[in-house]
Design brief:
Number of helices: 11
Bound molecules: D-glutamic acid
Number of strands: 10
Structural class: alpha/beta
Largest sheet: 6 strands, parallel
Helix content: 40-55%
Shape: globular
Radius of gyration: 17 Å
Distance between the termini: 27 Å
Length: 266
């Protein structure tokens, strides 16, 4: 039994897609979620900047006594997950490998799209991981910076004209590729899954946050790191930017009583 909290981080509300799944799978675990909203978006940054941001987040969560780390950010997972693991010295997991394996297991026609941030698309990490899971699969990637600001602002509804326009522009390069599976390669994007499905009808969406959480739960079990509690885990969100706007968006995306969620300045 290990009562220490688990550590999860992302640039903002996107990693809550992983947190909401973790809360379902492991309701007895305490979670420290670091939302680096002072530096969001990560997706337009270069590898050097991403390494520095990942190192700072890792140091913070390790300093607070995390027992394992879930990097609930596609951009960090694609560009410098190895460095995070090494620096933390803890069991850890990113979102690229689990989501890629899920995509390879889902596609029927062997044509998979990946919609991500620009930095993730540049890294080629999803292509490599999907092809490692199924070498005949054709992968079509596209990076966009249009969707993260909308998710951060809690705007995800397809009836919102700005959302509809941004989503349609974001998926346009993937529309004529004949894909049957689309990896939402940025953890913010599952928050817009309803709108993205409207724009890509008939295509199965893979939620990177959810897949990362499922893999991470197995890692905790394998390493004997579970708390042994069946309920009552506390979720504490540490926010580097504006606490109030994070709380407003989190209230939209977390299917639970926000009174039970602690939101603090990082
Ligand atoms: N949610 C992150 C990702 O999965 C970061 C998005 C961003 O800050 O640009 O890539």
């Amino acid at each position: 039994m290990d009562l220490r909290p688990i550590g999860v981080f992302d640039s903002g509300v996107g990693g809550l897609t992983a947190v909401r799944e973790l809360r379902k799978l492991l309701p007895g675990e305490d979670i420290l979620y670091f939302a680096d909203t002072a530096n969001v978006p990560y997706g337009g940054r270069d590898v050097g900047q991403l390494r520095a941001l990942a190192a700072a987040a890792t140091e913070k969560l390790c300093g607070l006594g995390a027992k394992a780390l879930l990097v609930a950010c596609g951009t960090i997972s694609s560009n410098c997950i190895g460095e995070v693991g090494k620096a933390s010295g803890l069991p850890y997991c990113g979102v690229v490998l689990p989501a890629s394996r899920a995509a390879a297991g889902t596609t029927k026609n062997g044509r998979v799209g990946v919609l991500s941030t620009e930095a993730t698309a540049r890294s080629g990490a999803f292509e490599r991981a999907i092809k490692a899971a199924g070498e005949d699969i054709e992968v079509f990637s596209y990076g966009t910076g249009l969707l993260v600001p909308l998710a951060e602002a809690g705007r995800t509804d397809y009836s919102d004209m700005d959302v509809r326009e941004a989503v349609n522009t974001a998926v346009e390069p993937l529309r004529d590729k004949g894909i049957d599976t689309l990896v939402l390669g940025c953890t913010h994007f599952p928050l817009l899954a309803g709108a993205i499905s409207r724009a890509m009808e008939g295509v199965t969406l893979i939620d990177t946050g959810e897949m990362g959480a499922v893999e991470f739960a197995s890692i905790l079990k394998e390493n004997g790191l579970l708390s042994g509690r069946r309920a009552g885990g506390v979720l504490t969100c540490l926010v580097s930017g504006d606490k109030r706007s994070f709380a407003q968006s989190a209230a939209i995306f977390l299917p639970e009583d926000m009174g039970s969620v602690r939101i603090e300045n990082a």
